[in-house]
Amino acid sequence: MTFAAARLALVSTLVAAALTLSGCAGMGGVEAQPAETPTPKATIAEPPSTPIVEQTVTDELTGTSVTTLAMVTDFHSAANASVSDGLQAVLVKVRFTAGDEYGGAERPTLVSITDRGVNLDYVSLGLTNPETLAPAMTAAGYTPINSVKPGETVTGWVGAWLRDDYTQFDLVYDRGESTVFGGDQSGEKIPPFQQIAPLEPSE
């Protein structure tokens, strides 16, 4: 083969290759894109607390139940400065299920935090999540439980001010006698119910 013929053959080969590549592009070929790496979701850290023995108080008449989950006895915030000296904030994490036997929402004031073994005839119950403490709890990530609808289960915190020389605590469920209003059971008396759950650190 002469030099001219060899040169002509090389040119023809290059042209054919170019036409082939052009044809592929014209047929809608799409260049592969690298897979996007998903952005990890931010994880909200659980505020510090001490796990405690899980105990469930169940009000058989209304169907309401409260389970103890964790406790905080060293909660410090600006709220401490707004109350009298000699008090400490004690917080308890609970799983609260409102019964639907009689309808109507339940409030966290059904449960109270007290000194261990205190005579309940001489203490005020139902002072849960007071206005002097609840905002500080929320700001620190200890979301206070509010009203719970019938049949609904909510996990959150209840808090109270107690004397700072108390070191052991109880959770007291206390529902006074009440009367049903409306519906087929209107006028029915619901007898009171009270139960105490000692708050003990889990091993």
Walk me through the structure.
The protein has 203 residues and is α+β, with helices and mostly antiparallel strands. 17% of the residues lie in helices and 30% in strands. The strands form three sheets. Strands 1, 2, 3, 4 and 6 form a five-stranded antiparallel beta sheet that branches. Strands 5-7-10 form a three-stranded antiparallel beta sheet, with no helix packed on it. The chain has a two-stranded antiparallel ribbon with strand order 8-9. Strand 2 and strand 3 (65-75) form a beta hairpin. The termini are far apart. Mean pLDDT is 81; it is low at 1-30.
Descriptors:
alpha+beta; three-stranded antiparallel sheet; 203 residues
| Gyration radius, rounded | 34 Å
How many strands appear in the DSSP assignment? 10
Number of helices in the DSSP assignment: 3
Query: Helices and strands: which structural class?
Result: alpha+beta
Largest sheet report? 5 strands, antiparallel
Order of helices and strands: HEEEHEEHEEEEE
